[in-house]
Amino acid sequence: MQPFLEQIIHTPSSGLGITSVLVFGSLLVALCFCPIQLRRFRRRPPYPPGPKGIPILGNALQIPTKAPWSQYRQWAEIYGDIFHLRILGQQVIVLSSLKVGMDLLHKRSAIYSDRPDMSLTRDHGGWKFNLGFEPYGEEFHLKRKILNQSFNPSATKKHYGLMHDNIKLFIQSVLNNPSKFQTYNRMYAGANIMMLTYGHQVTNEHDKAIFSAEEAVTTLESLGAHPIDILPSLGRLPYWIWGKTFTNLLDKMRRTTHEVAVVPYEEVKTAYFNGTAVPSMATALFDSHAKSDKTVAHEDAIIGSLGTTLIGGGDTTPSSLNTFVIAMMLNPDIQREARKEVDKLLQGERLPKLEDRDSLPYIDAILKEIQRLRWKPVVPNGVAHRATQDDEYQGMFIPKGSTVVFHVLAIMNNPRDFPEPEKFLPERFLKKEGDNYTLRTDVIDPTSVAFGLGPRICPGRHFANTWLWLAVTTLLAVFEISLELDDAGKPIMPDLEYVPGLVSHPKPYRCSLKPRPEMLACLRANDLIYP
Ligand code: HEM
């Protein structure tokens, strides 16, 4: 799911220098495509406006490696909500408003739902199983159908019991060891998904499934730009010509993708045919696809859909929940206001339930603001799409093969839609009458941006939002969240510089999570032990 732009520009660590990749790629592109491009150029409307680049490299060197979105925001202010960049001869179209995103990715989805090639990771690194890399076509629809069946809004309701069980385990773990909040955050996000997908119970933070998913994503992030992505036929050459660092990394990538997608699948398949599998997405699929000879129809699509869930959800929801904790530490007034709403409903007598959601609009506003984020949305550059046909939009030309970036972060930071975007202000989504809040409907809902658009919209969005709501509300009910103090009594501030990557997330931070005395009776009544 690595945005193409990032892959080309921002992760040059595969053993080849970025400059050589850029120059090499540009020469190839120029040699192969110049005559064709010239013929098309004479007939077409202009590209969307954009900054002037330099020969060969185009705009590559104008995109800062750190916080590139602020540059995109500036370009959007100069050139409008759709602008054009050229990187290595690759046309990149950046969409920086929800309207343009809807017009293209949603309304013209037949053209804009493909992914850039990423031949290296897909065809050579073992990532072919992953829906996020799947070209738009029959296999894509099959995998999406499988995931949608388990993650659509009514299917998500069936997972409430699992989430209610896991939130209690999560809270108990944090009560036992608050300093490991970040570890448990990740562990229980993974536990939800592993139980739902494979019927696998995660019982500790060292569970191999969670470890494999982390390792696979880290390896993917460290591969970086490579000529095989520019000219896939180079992949037919022996790998050793690219050097030892590269071959080692590719070996590791193939091993980790196997561990993440094939190993858990084979385990659950064996259990299914032995009659010992716990009911899950996998067993439901076997019920309808297993044959009498113990083979499974559409097996690749099933392996791929199941194997994608932990990759899609293992990092993303924990990142949002970490941002929530950081936001609460830095905004005690907002924390107080949110807790007032929670306490009014629960009266210290019970833990929150997902059925309470409609009664707590302030919490929903916090979730929207977390997704809008003043620091970094979880997937700041969206995930790149690719145009499969020449297109024209408002008199501008979008050529076939363009990489199309729905720039989530630039949209979320647009002061036109979100005044004072740098401030954390849940109230921007609320109307207040007397003491009561209601959600505004006349403001862009960040939830409709953060998860992408069109047929490629995140299939896990309902599930992610439901778990996040429950986690946020329960943490507010049970804990006082504040900055930890150092030995001199000074607050330890979190670093707001997020770690960039496929999924952006905060650096490790310190926080104080103190159980609220008024909830102790309720915790005991729920068999939650306060040490
Ligand atoms: C806060 C949590 C999450 C955020 C912000 C998020 C965001 C996104 C975004 C922006 C995309 C790309 C959409 C596009 O191409 O336009 C995406 C794709 C995807 N997400 Fe999520 N996601 C989250 C949680 C999850 C969860 C829990 C799952 C697993 C069930 C999941 C599974 C996927 C998959 C499989 C794709 C690829 C879809 C495709 O290419 O067709 N995500 N997500």
Walk me through the structure.
It contains 22 helices and ten strands. Strand 4 (391-393) and strand 5 (396-398) form a beta hairpin. The strands form four sheets. A four-stranded mixed β-sheet has the order 1-2-6-3. Strands 4-5 form a two-stranded antiparallel ribbon. A two-stranded antiparallel sheet has the order 7-8. The chain starts with a helix and ends in a 6-residue tail after the last helix. Helix content is 50%, strand content 8%. The protein has a single domain, classed as Cytochrome P450 (Cytochrome p450, Orthogonal Bundle). The protein has helices at 4-9, 18-41, 68-79, 98-106, 109-112, 119-124, 138-151, 153-158, 160-176, 181-198, 208-223, 227-230, 244-274, 281-289, 299-313, 316-330, 332-346, 361-372, 408-412, 447-450, 461-478, 520-525, and strands at residues 82-87, 90-95, 385-386, 391-393, 396-398, 403-406, 430-433, 436-439, 479-482, 512-515. By secondary structure, the protein is α+β, with helices and mostly antiparallel strands. The model is unreliable at 1-23 (pLDDT under 50). Helix 7 packs across helix 15, helix 10 runs antiparallel to helix 15 and helix 13 packs across helix 15. The structure holds protoporphyrin IX containing FE. Protoporphyrin IX containing FE binds at residues 131-132, 144, 151, 308-309, 312-313, 316-317, 320, 378-379, 382-383, 406, 450-453, 456-460, 463-464.
